[in-house]
Recover the amino acids of this structure.
C-alpha cells in the first residue's frame, strides 16, 4: 500500500537518520559473569513485568519515573552544531504542547533552558502524558507540538492528513535508550542459542518476514536460505512477532519491511497463536513473552526490545545489506547509532506545505538539534544524544523546500 508523498519522505528521513551516526567499535555494557560475556553479545537481563493500571494512571498524570542510569554514558558528539540564539526579545508567545509519559521530564528540561534564552516565550507541557493522546490533540488543533517517544501510528498520520490535507512534520530529537524498560529501548532480533546464525542483513530479514519483499530477492523459508549449513539447512524458519498495531512492530516494519517508498506487509499470522509449520508469523499480543518463545523453539526468530531479553537467547548482529559491516546491539553501537535498529524520539508539529513554520516552534527544533540541546539529553542520562549526522539530517528536513 502506497502512502502519501510526505509520509514516504518521513520514512526515508528515518532511514537516513538510522545510518547517520558516527560508527564506533562494539562493546558490552552488562555486568554479568565472565562466562556469560564469553557466550552472549547481549547477556540475559532481569525480567520486567507490565505496568499496572495504577502505574499507567500515575504516569499519565506525572510522567513515568526515570530509571537508574546506565553505568556507561555516551560522549557528546563534538561535531554537533553550535546553537546561535536570536535576540532575547525577538521571540514571544504562549504555546501548549503534549508529551509521552517517558518524555515529560526531558521535554520540560529542553523548554526550561529554551525559555531562559527567550523569556517572553511560554511553553507548557501538561498532563495527560501520552503520545497517542497528544497526537489526537494535535489533529484537533488543541496543541502546538507533541513530543512522542516513537514513530507516529499510521492511523495518527492518516487522521492528521484527513484533517489538514497533509502530514505532520516529524523531526527526530534524540536517540532512544539502550535497554531501559519503557524508555524506547533498542530492538534486537533473537534466535535460539543453538542456532548457528550470528548475523543477518535487513534484506535477509525482509525476505523471511514479509510477503512484499520490498528489498528484493526470493522468499526465505528455511534457515539454509539465510546462510545456515549442514543439518540446519533444511530447517523451517518459525517467526515470532507482535500483533499489529504495536510500537515495536511498527518500528521493525518501517526499518526492515518498508523500502523504496513501499509499505511492507507481514507474512500471515497463525490465528491460534501456535507455532506455524511454514514461515508464517506466530503473533504475541505483548512483547513480554517473545524471548521465552524463542528460547523454547530451536527454529524460531523474533524481535524484541533489549529490556525484554530475559532468556538465554542469541541476539544477532545486523547489517543493512549483505557484505556491509554487521553491528551487535551493544551499548557503544547503540549510542553511536551504528546499530541499525537504534531508536529515535520525535517532535511533531503542524507545518502547512508552502508556509513558514511558526518561528518559535522552528527555533525550538533548532535549539534541540544543537550541541546545547543534545547536552540536555546527555545530562538526563536516560535517552541517548543524537549524533551529528542525525542532527544534520533533521535540520535538512526542517529546511527542505515544501
Amino acid at each position: 500500500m502506497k502512502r502519501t508523498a510526505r509520509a514516504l519522505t518521513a520514512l526515508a528521513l528515518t532511514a537516513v537518520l538510522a545510518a547517520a551516526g558516527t560508527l564506533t567499535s562494539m562493546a558490552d555494557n552488562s555486568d554479568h559473569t565472565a562466562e556469560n560475556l564469553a557466550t552472549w553479545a547481549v547477556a540475559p537481563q532481569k525480567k520486567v513485568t507490565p505496568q499496572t493500571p495504577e502505574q499507567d494512571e500515575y504516569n499519565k498524570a506525572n510522567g513515568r519515573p526515570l530509571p537508574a542510569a546506565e553505568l556507561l554514558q555516551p560522549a557528546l558528539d563534538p561535531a554537533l552544531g553550535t546553537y546561535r540564539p536570536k535576540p532575547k526579545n525577538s521571540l514571544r508567545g504562549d504555546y501548549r504542547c503534549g508529551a509521552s509519559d517517558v518524555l515529560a521530564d526531558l521535554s520540560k528540561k529542553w523548554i526550561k533552558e529554551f525559555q531562559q534564552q527567550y523569556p517572553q516565550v511560554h511553553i507548557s507541557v501538561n498532563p495527560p502524558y501520552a503520545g497517542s493522546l497528544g497526537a489526537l490533540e494535535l489533529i484537533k488543533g488543541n496543541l502546538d507540538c507533541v513530543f512522542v517517544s516513537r514513530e507516529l501510528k499510521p492511523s495518527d498520520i492518516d487522521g492528521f492528513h484527513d484533517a489538514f490535507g497533509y502530514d505532520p512534520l516529524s523531526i527526530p530529537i534524540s536517540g532512544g535508550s539502550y535497554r531501559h524498560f519503557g524508555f524506547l529501548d533498542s530492538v534486537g532480533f533473537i534466535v535460539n542459542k543453538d542456532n548457528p546464525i550470528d548475523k543477518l542483513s535487513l534484506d535477509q530479514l525482509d525476505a523471511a518476514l514479509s510477503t512484499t519483499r520490498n528489498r528484493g530477492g526470493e522468499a526465505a523459508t528455511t534457515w539454509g536460505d539465510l546462510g545456515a549449513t549442514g543439518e540446519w539447512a533444511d530447517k523451517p524458519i518459525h517467526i515470532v512477532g507482535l500483533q499489529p498495531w504495536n510500537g515495536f512492530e511498527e518500528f521493525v516494519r518501517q526499518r526492515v519491511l518498508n523500502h523504496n517508498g513501499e509499505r511492507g506487509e507481514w507474512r500471515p499470522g497463525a490465528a491460534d497463536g501456535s507455532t506455524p509449520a511454514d514461515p508464517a508469523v506466530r503473533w504475541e499480543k505483548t512483547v513480554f513473552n517473545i524471548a521465552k518463545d524463542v528460547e523454547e523453539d530451536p527454529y524460531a526468530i523474533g524481535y524484541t526490545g533489549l529490556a525484554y531479553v530475559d532468556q538465554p537467547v542469541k541476539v544477532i548482529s545486523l547489517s543493512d545489506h549483505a557484505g556491509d559491516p554487521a553491528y551487535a546491539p551493544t551499548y557503544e553501537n547503540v549510542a553511536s547509532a551504528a546499530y541499525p535498529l537504534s531508536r529515535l524520539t520525535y517532535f511533531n508539529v503542524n507545518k502547512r506545505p508552502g508556509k513558514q513554520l511558526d518561528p518559535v516552534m522552528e527555533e525550538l527544533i533548532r535549539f534541540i538539534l544543537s550541541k546545547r540541546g543534545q547536552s540536555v539529553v546527555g545530562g538526563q542520562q536516560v535517552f541517548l544524544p543524537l549524533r551529528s549526522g542525525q542532527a544534520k539530517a533533521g535540520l535538512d528536513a526542517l529546511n527542505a523546500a515544501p
Observations:
- Confidence is low (pLDDT under 50) at residues 1-12, 21-39.
